[in-house]
Amino acid sequence: MPRTFLLFAVFLLASLAVSHAAEPLTIVAFGDSTTAERGSTRVYASLLAGQLQQRGGGDVRVVNAGVGGNTTPIARKRLEKDVLAHQPALVMIQFGINDAAVDVWKTPPATVPRTDLKTFEADLRFFVAECRRTGAIVLLLTPNPLQWTDVTRKLYGKPPYNVEDPDGFNVVLKEYAQAVQRIAAEEHVLLADVDAAFRGEFARHAGAESSKKDKPSGSWLLPDGMHPGNPGHALIADLIVDALGAESASPVERKPFSKWIRLDEHVEVHPRATDISPDLPHSGVLGVAMVNLDGGGVMHVYSGPNGYGTKTARTFVACRVTHDGGRTWGPEQVITRHDDRNASHPTVMRSADGSLHVFYLGYNTWGWTKDGEPDGCDSPIWTIRSLDGGKTWMDRVEVFEGYSGATNGAIQTETGRLLVPFSHYVSKPGRLQSSVGVSDDGGLTWRTTGFIDIGGAGHHSGALEPSVLELRDGRIWMLIRTERRFFMQSFSADGGLTWSPAEPTPIAAVSAPGHTAGLHDGRIVLVYNALENGRQEVELAFSSDEAGTWTAPVAVARGKGTTYPFVLEHTPGELWVGFFSVPRGFNHAKAKLMKIATDAVAPTR
């Protein structure tokens, strides 16, 4: 049963009990001045009581245990008296702004936060454990981001803060917000991502407010740059109700996209997602594949500048690396380029010995006829590898000579064999087959197996852009894109050398590729464009029985032309999802990356 449904069921059962007893359901809001009562402002704790009473029909009592100026070490001393003594059914916890504060206004100026990050994390875990010990359900809230105003510039306009950067007041606080997100995922508690929601609203309002002098973008949410006003608290209350699995009934007017987080004019993502898209130095790119590196880093590979009409040898494959969870990305590093063709549509994998393998198309000219590819067109699969974690690249070889579609992930089997799935055109009639490149020497030489043919005739007809995954019993599962309104599948029992005839899956999907990954807990995650909303939503589904059955899809991104997704389990309980945003076509493709806790989108195991 999903955790959000369980929690809302608690409210409903408690409401029923109220008719037989005088005891109301108690909720405690535990935090600092962003939680505490604040004059005439209608803070989220007071709004929440009314919303939940309307949903549950019973008596709900919300205790506001917010105290201005509190850090987690101070709050730890009052946990028993101000929180646990009320015997709450739910505890909402929001700290971070005071903890992350570097008091540069003091004489002499402080140089470190009031609470170091390690202590902050330990205190939050202590709060979670103590509340759980009493049977309470826990919901963590990230701290709201801060804004520059005349007053905050005067007080905090010194390093480590940067008044020249619109987000320079959050250089330290960002890490504390990320810690809350991480702890919520690791401790399997609910999360209301206030930081992400406010940032989405800031971005949406930036253009409209840019003409207002002395008014920072988002001032309607944070009148003094630090504390939410009425609209800000209404947004937080909505986020909490969403996290509890109930429909909002806020008496304050809802703002568009207050639930989902707006990335740009075309794309918005799940309320509990965090945007980690790198700022790529090209008008457009193709590629959202990612791979885990040693030390917790992640590499993103892509090609640019993209465009199907791009001149030969202009497009190259490159990468960027993050070592801080996607908050910042290192400089672009060119992986490979060709003198006689474009290098495009890359994917990446890491083998057991630590070597990195990038696969990509090396194309000259795109084209299509009813019989197959036109003369002169070629788009073979190439690969290149790195033995030093991506510092240098070597041994560029051709995997498949022919006219191929985009690569879609690659794997290494338990036996050490490398498998890269791809599709390629065949003629008379023109259609696509799905095949697999196989290497038993670490990627130096390759042979092709599979040639899975489901028939068809016409552009994008046949078996397209497959993804492969090794199952627990050692079989290799291939998921195949089709134009038949569902995925098809094939299995190999000999490590990818021979394949069963393709058969339909129960997964209804538009004609777009899906990507799969195995999770640490044994489940499989699939990211794809479900049939109902087509290339307007990127959705996740999960299987606990080796791809036999699947959970209902949950959307994590939406917008015109959101497609060609990729999924990576960065750490247990955290998924990184990439997808293309192509509202104006693939000549103007953008790469979008996000991360989200698995529990936010998957049924609780």
Question: How would you explain this protein's 3D organization?
Answer:
By secondary structure, the chain is α+β, with helices and mostly antiparallel strands. The chain has two domains: 257 residues, 3-Layer(aba) Sandwich (Rossmann fold), CATH 3.40.50.1110; 314 residues, Neuraminidase (6 Propeller), CATH 2.120.10.10. It has ten helices and 31 strands. A hairpin with a 2-residue loop joins β29 and β30. The protein is elongated and about 75 Å long. The termini are close together. The N terminus is likely disordered.
Secondary structure category: alpha+beta
What topology, given as strand order, has the largest sheet?
6-7-28-27-26-25
CATH topology of the largest domain: Neuraminidase
What is the number of independent domains? 2
What value does the Rg take, in angstroms? 26 Å
The coarse overall form would be elongated
Q: What would the average pLDDT be, to the nearest integer?
A: 87
- Please give the share of residues in helix: 10-25%
Task: Tally the beta strands.
Answer: 31
Distance between the termini: 8 Å
Class of the largest domain, according to the CATH hierarchy? Mainly Beta
Strand content: 25-35%
CATH-derived architecture of the largest domain: 6 Propeller
